[in-house]
Amino acid sequence: MESYPLPYHGYTVYVALFARLQNAAALRQRLVTASTLPADEDGDRERAAVDSAFVDAKMITSRLHLLTAVQQALLARADDSLKTKTLHSEVLWMLEPGTNITDSLKHFGLSPSTTSLVLVHIAPSPLPADDAAAQQGANEDVLRRMEAVVEGELVGLEALGRLPDGGTDEKALRKIYKLNQDVALKSLPSGSTEALEAIDKLMTSAVALKVAM
């Protein structure tokens, strides 16, 4: 897991990548159920347990692609211009080329067929912000809670795009973003290193510009 303290936002971003996911269908059902539970102690506890953005890793081209969506979500919150109910759902919305949150969940969120999963948890930074021990403790707590809900193999974020159970879903991204119409990609063979690098740049740029929509 990686963590990114952002003092200017007052938040820390925690990101973990899990390969060979074993409980995708059950975990998705858990998320749905948690959203419908009453606002009582048990319901709040369950929602806190799954309080993260659950992103299908095959739809992410690189660490920069993902972190750009996180940064855009935080900027939207700072500007009081969130399009969704939470920071975590805003991350998924930022990844979607359109404006429909349902589409963003469908295209980039956890599904029963997900085999690799990125969890993004955004929380207020420990105080004081420069306390290394406090940050380390927070890192360990967040990772422990992530591993309590996800059945999979924790791997480094550098594996994004080349996971053992499938890399970036180039075909899906081309379709969602209508990339086959892009002049720069027409001459690049699908699946080639050059095509994937070009798609990564296009994805990251699109997310970076979405906040202006």
TrEMBL record:
This protein's GO CC annotations: cytosol; EKC/KEOPS complex; nucleus
UniProt keyword terms in alphabetical order: Nucleus, tRNA processing
Where does this polypeptide localize? Nucleus
Single GO biological process annotation from the record = tRNA threonylcarbamoyladenosine modification
Which Pfam family, giving just one, matches this sequence? Answer: CGI-121
Question: Chief localization class?
Answer: nucleus
Give the family this protein belongs to, as stated in its UniProt record.
Answer: Belongs to the CGI121/TPRKB family.
Report the protein's function.
Component of the EKC/KEOPS complex that is required for the formation of a threonylcarbamoyl group on adenosine at position 37 (t(6)A37) in tRNAs that read codons beginning with adenine. The complex is probably involved in the transfer of the threonylcarbamoyl moiety of threonylcarbamoyl-AMP (TC-AMP) to the N6 group of A37. CGI121 acts as an allosteric effector that regulates the t(6)A activity of the complex. The EKC/KEOPS complex also promotes both telomere uncapping and telomere elongation. The complex is required for efficient recruitment of transcriptional coactivators.
Database matches in PANTHER family: CGI-121 FAMILY MEMBER, EKC_KEOPS COMPLEX SUBUNIT TPRKB
Name under which the protein is recorded? EKC/KEOPS complex subunit CGI121
Q: What is the lineage of its organism?
A: Eukaryota, Fungi, Dikarya, Basidiomycota, Pucciniomycotina
